[in-house]
Design goal:
Helix content: 25-40%
CATH superfamily of the largest domain: ATPase, nucleotide binding domain
Number of domains: 2
CATH class of the largest domain: Alpha Beta
Radius of gyration: 19 Å
Order of helices and strands: EEEHEHEEHEEEHHEHEH
Largest sheet: 6 strands, mixed
CATH topology of the largest domain: Nucleotidyltransferase, domain 5
CATH architecture of the largest domain: 2-Layer Sandwich
Strand order of the largest sheet: 6-9-8-7-10-11
Number of helices: 7
Strand content: 15-25%
């Protein structure tokens, strides 16, 4: 079996895959903590394995992607303590299944590289991929099978937390969509602004990118918050919550 691990700013995701299939057999998240030791991460991973009745001895390959350097070494130490196989740490310098039409590939986050490997594997190209986590990140593969660039904006939860923390009269809210675009209570107004506002941002990015390039893209959304936004977009969007893990499976196979 193959283990893939994605370290994001908000969550660390774990997935187990069969050797010959990218779709995870299971997928779990824990909160990213800068304070946890390697031992604490060892306990977390061991617990996840036990909950899913998986023996670490059956894991023959592992890939790790991280955009949180302070966490990477402790998590890598934990994985090396548990597993008997080598851990492939994803970097911009590994072999990629697509080209790069960007100024400096070394500055592209490994989460973006993995997302696009998953998109290419599952959906082909040209494509636009939106990863909606702490930041909302749009990236594209052009019709020449190249990573064509990236757009980064504040994420849904980041925007909401900023709004609440800087405005004393506004409450914390859930991300349920209101019944109408124009809210009739403060909570409805905030939910509408976040959900419909972000959906409008996504639609606008798609429209502007297609106008600029003259291409029609397959659009994919992933990340923990994508399920709240994608249903309210005008464009057809494929929801794939484990896209990044499938991309890591693909990168592990070709490296």
């Amino acid at each position: 079996m193959i283990l893939t691990v994605d370290v994001g700013n908000s969550n660390i995701c774990f997935a187990i895959h069969a050797d010959d299939a990218p779709e995870p057999l299971f997928f779990e998240r824990i909160h990213t903590s800068h304070e946890k030791t390697a031992l604490e991460y060892t306990i977390d991973i061991t617990t996840i394995f036990e909950l899913h009745h998986v023996s670490a001895a059956t894991v023959t390959d592992c890939a790790l992607s991280s955009v949180v350097p302070v966490v990477t070494q402790n998590l890598l130490s934990a994985l090396n303590r548990i597993l008997s196989c080598r851990v492939l740490v994803i970097t911009p310098h590994i072999h990629l299944p697509y080209g790069a039409n960007v100024a400096d590939i070394s500055t592209v986050g490994t989460d973006i590289l993995c997302d696009n490997a998953g998109t290419l594997l599952q959906y082909g190209f040209p494509s636009l991929t939106f990863d909606m986590g702490t930041a909302t990140v749009a990236s594209s593969l052009n019709d020449r099978r190249e990573l064509d660039g990236v757009l980064i904006s504040a994420g849904v939860r980041t925007s909401l937390n900023s709004l609440v923390s800087r405005t004393s009269a506004l409450p914390q809210i859930a991300l349920d969509a209101p019944d109408s675009v124009i809210g009739r209570t403060t909570e409805e107004a905030m939910r509408s602004g976040i959900i419909y506002g972000t959906a409008g941002l996504i639609d606008g990015i798609i429209d502007a990118t297609e106008k600029e390039t003259g291409l029609h893209y397959t659009v994919i959304a992933t990340g923990g918050l994508s399920r709240f936004i994608a249903p309210y977009c005008r464009h057809e969007i494929i929801l794939d919550p484990t896209l990044l893990m499938k991309g890591m499976w693909s990168l592990l196979r070709i490296n």
